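Customer escalation, tier 2.

The customer says the design service returned an amino acid string that "doesn't look like it belongs to this structure." They asked us to rerun it and document both sides in this ticket. The original structure tokens are below, unchanged.
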């Protein structure tokens, strides 16, 4: 081949598409690859043609230097896949936390008792859609040799398994009900189920977020869902099972996927960190697992962010380091040591130190709502440790020791009251226009509430005082309201009833005599009980009468404590005692013996001394 012209002697616009030496000019694709715009005629960079490789090998011509091999084009960089997608379970053995469902499906496949419709429900990120795809694999797997049947352990290498995993199998149709909600979308399914599967054993319809279908769409699907062809399986996934009609629920086999426990999430995330070559502290993984709230996808998203947020300087030592401190900063959580110090200041009654701790945490970027939630979490763990006889859970020995100490020192009543105060404060902080101010006031309220008496003990004390009132003081004034307050409830009650009757409130006085059993009587306050046979509301009548008789408004309270009998009951008891005493008199006994049918009656005209007259029954 002839020598090529020197590129330095040839201008770009003087170069034809094919020069005299037969070298073709660059095509439009080459210009695009070189970064030039073929559309706008950009300037071509200087071209330096490479010499052709020698016809003989270097071994045959040792004096000729070997030609440099042309550089291979760089491989196209694969886009980064987030951990939630990269580690999506491909087999049932990789599906964590759903052992009961896997066991049921395995038994159903082994006994050939497969339902025609399955419903997976649960919170976000627990594996509903992944489970549906695994079921599709399990039902259509043919094994590496092509002769396999449905199995709970799909091989993952046969054509159906690979196609389903890549989302391109023609007989596994996945539909998002959130964007296909109408009857027309369901009608397409109804029309398609009549035809057999093209290459798979079963034609499978995976409908995600099935609760988003309209009512008419559900009704249109009911008949097909109840009696589908033998080659069709329906797999539904939803987070809001309550929105599904009962008619749909009764036609499906339901699996409730559970939240993943924190301990299982910690082990799973630790394994993923090991596979990714990332070093992570145990406490950091514990924080991520707690923040996931039982969702694997949420936890992996947080872990992905934590790895990106990790200290880049650690790369020089072989990899990123995910530390608990950085995870807390990323999530805006309070440091566990700071949490314990805040709770210690609150329980110790040190208001100044408490406010200083809140300000320090806020300055570090911790939100007030996160502070309240952290204190609630510590309180809950103390309560659980108290129930477990001091066996506390914690990521460090210091934390476990402090929680165990509090569980021994605090009573159950104090912990429950603290929880209620923090819970109320959390709600106030969430709704307050200034969360920091609201958090301060809520914590100060909880601090000062520690000095208040226990409500249960206070109630018992009041009942004891009511049942055993203090004796009247000898230095009390002889008359007036002071005397009524210092007198016993029975005496004070008689005086009060006399006042009401003297004020002309005869109806109220009659009610007070017949129905009311006084428990505690003092100026402005009346605590009483009544017989169960009295059910009418006497409050308005009594308040008006007492206001008229005493000139003050009274607080009326009902009580189950021991009460003094009513005036009518005491009068009846007195009459019964007099009659018993009279019957024991020798003269009366002799008279009753002589006149067996005689009875003692009371003379309305008799003097107050209680003289009796006798009447013999006819």
């Amino acid at each position: 081949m002839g020598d090529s012209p020197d590129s330095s002697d040839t201008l770009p616009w003087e170069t034809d598409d094919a020069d005299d030496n037969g070298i073709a000019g660059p095509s439009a694709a080459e210009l695009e690859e070189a970064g030039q715009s073929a559309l706008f005629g950009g300037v071509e960079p200087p071209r330096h043609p490479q010499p052709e490789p020698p016809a003989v090998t270097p071994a045959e011509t040792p004096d000729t230097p070997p030609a440099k091999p042309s550089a291979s084009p760089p491989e196209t960089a694969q886009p980064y896949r987030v951990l939630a997608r990269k580690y999506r379970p491909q087999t049932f053995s990789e599906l964590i936390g759903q052992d009961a469902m896997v066991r049921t499906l395995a038994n159903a496949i082994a006994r050939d008792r497969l339902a025609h419709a399955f419903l997976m429900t649960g919170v976000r990120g627990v594996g509903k859609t992944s489970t549906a795809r695994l079921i599709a694999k399990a039902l259509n797997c043919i094994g590496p040799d092509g002769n396999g049947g449905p199995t709970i352990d799909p091989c993952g290498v046969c054509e159906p398994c690979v196609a389903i995993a890549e989302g391109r199998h023609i007989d596994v149709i996945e539909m998002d009900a959130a964007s296909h909600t109408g009857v027309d979308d369901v009608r397409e399914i109804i029309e398609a189920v009549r035809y057999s599967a093209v290459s798979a054993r079963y034609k499978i319809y995976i409908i995600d977020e099935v609760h988003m279908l309209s009512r008419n769409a559900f009704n249109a699907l009911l008949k097909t869902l109840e009696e589908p062809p033998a080659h069709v399986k329906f797999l539904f996934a939803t987070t809001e099972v309550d929105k599904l009609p009962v008619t749909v629920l009764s036609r499906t086999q339901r699996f409730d996927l559970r939240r993943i426990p924190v301990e299982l999430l910690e082990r799973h995330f630790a394994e993923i960190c090991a596979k990714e070559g990332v070093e992570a502290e145990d406490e950091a993984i514990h924080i991520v697992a707690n923040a996931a709230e039982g969702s694997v996808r949420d936890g992996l998203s947080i872990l992905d962010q934590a790895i990106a947020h990790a200290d880049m300087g650690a790369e020089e030592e072989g990899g990123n380091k995910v530390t608990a401190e950085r995870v807390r900063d990323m999530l805006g959580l309070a440091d566990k040591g700071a949490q314990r110090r805040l709770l210690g200041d609150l329980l110790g009654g040190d208001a100044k130190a408490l406010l200083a701790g809140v300000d320090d945490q806020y300055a570090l970027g911790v939100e007030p709502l996160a502070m309240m939630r952290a204190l609630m979490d510590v309180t809950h763990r103390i309560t659980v440790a108290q129930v477990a006889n001091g066996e506390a859970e914690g990521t460090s020995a210091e934390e476990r020791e402090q929680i165990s100490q509090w569980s021994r020192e605090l009573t159950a009543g104090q912990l429950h009251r603290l929880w209620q105060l923090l819970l109320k404060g959390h709600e106030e902080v969430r709704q307050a226009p200034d969360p920091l101010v609201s958090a301060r006031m809520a914590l100060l309220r909880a601090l000062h509430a520690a000095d208040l008496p226990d409500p249960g003990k206070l109630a018992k004390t009041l009942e004891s005082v009511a049942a055993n009132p203090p004796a009247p003081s000898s230095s009390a004034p002889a008359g007036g309201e002071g005397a009524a307050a210092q007198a016993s409830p029975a005496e004070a009650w008689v005086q009060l009833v006399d006042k009401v009757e003297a004020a002309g409130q005869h109806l109220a006085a009659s009610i007070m005599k017949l129905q009311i059993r006084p428990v505690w009587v003092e100026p402005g306050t009346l605590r009483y009980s009544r017989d169960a046979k009295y059910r009418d509301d006497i409050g308005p009548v009594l308040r008006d009468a007492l206001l008229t008789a005493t000139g003050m408004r009274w607080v009326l309270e009902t009580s189950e404590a021991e009460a003094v009998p009513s005036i009518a009951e005491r009068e009846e008891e007195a009459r019964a005692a007099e009659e018993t005493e009279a019957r024991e008199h020798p003269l009366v006994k002799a008279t009753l013996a002589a006149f067996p049918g005689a009875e003692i009656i009371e003379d309305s005209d008799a003097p107050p001394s209680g003289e009796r007259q006798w009447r013999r029954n006819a």
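Tier 2 assessment: The sequence is consistent with the input. The longest strand covers residues 232-238. The first helix runs from residue 28 to 33. Sent an explanation to the customer and offered a walkthrough call.
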